[in-house]
Design brief:
The chain has 391 residues and is α+β, with helices and mostly antiparallel strands. It has 12 helices and 19 strands. A hairpin with a 2-residue loop joins strand 11 and strand 12. The relative contact order is 0.09. Bound molecules: guanosine-5'-diphosphate (GDP) and manganese (II) ion. The site of guanosine-5'-diphosphate has 16 residues, from strand 3, strand 8 and strand 11.
Amino acid sequence: MKIHEADAKSLLLAQGLPVPDWSVARSPAEARAAAERFFAAGATRVVIKAQVLVGGRGKAGGVKLAASSVEAEAIAGQILGMSIKGITVRKVLVASAAVIVKEYYLGAILDRSSQRIVLMASAEGGVEIEEVARVTPGAIHRVAADPLLGLLDYQARALAFAVGLGGPNLRDFVRIAKGLVATMKANDADLVEVNPLAIVRESGPDGQVERLSCLDAKVTLDDSALPRHPELERFRDLDEEDPADAEARHYDISFIHLDGTIGCMVNGAGLAMTTMDLVKRAGGEPANFLDIGGGAKADRVAAAMRLILDDPKVEAILVNIFGGITRGDEVARGLIDARSRQSRDVPMVVRIVGTNAEEAGRLLEAAHFETAASLDEAAAKAVAAAKGAAA
Ligand code: GDP
Ligand code: MN
């Protein structure tokens, strides 16, 4: 699950990281009021930032500075409602604008190949890391945190030196690097990224000082770990969530959109992948991965059918159920019910084996469903049906 910058910043703040104070506004008037507070507290400029779950907001015109609260209101008016990569901006973050001396990139990822949290840093801050990786891969420096010992100070210092940070910023950098790893662990995140991590100039009682500050934050949470973190559910933005994802989650269905034309409804993740392989071997392309899970009842089958048919690319449906805890007759009833109510008619091939398969076969036959005895046969029939539909 992706979360907004403001929410990601609150997770960094909870680990004691230096994040500039912010407010979230949903209207130009709210943005103005927030800006007034920052100006009253001594800000010379404020930054207004679109809160959307995509990167590259700066380039798209979603990050702007304002020198007065009136200007802040006008800029918030421009940014709110604008579309960034197809997503409508509904909220902006308002903060006292930092005076940036230099921008760096610092990110923690869960690296599955090394099975560790890997910290990446680059002196090419503010630029999207994928772009840096493509153009100047040598500019990205990495260290892996030990699963037991965590990130050690010397590793963080090595990373700082690699990107040219030293002197008074070194201690801050070590603290921030360790804080990113702590944020990963505390929230079961897949990614915690600060881009830019910036050297900012501030005027203090003893004149100008420079320090490191987390000006942007991006956190992606591990969906499979979310049940362990009910407190993070409040960060879910239903406005930006694909409605199909929301429905799938509601019914406990694992569902992933793909590019093909054969809708697949299967129980069990392994069987679902095998089914997709066989669709390909039969000359077709799966339109989705869909696992209805164990013990699916008729309502879940009907929901799975809706999810599959909502994809206009789908030209045929292949249902492959291996009855164990899942009862074949229950699935058959769900299919019959779903088809009687579905919005469009596409060819469907059903293979049900295992628990109550005979009963399922009788029900499906009576309802004139096309059935198949083997998975190869089912895949071949579904692919042929899709080709027939496309012709
Ligand atoms: P992104 O484009 O979606 O990654 O949004 P960022 O929050 O990273 O902002 C994009 C760019 O805007 C940064 O790289 C900075 O150059 C600039 N920016 C962001 N916050 C501030 C700020 O407080 N002060 C100044 N001067 N520039 C900022
Ligand atoms: Mn950024």
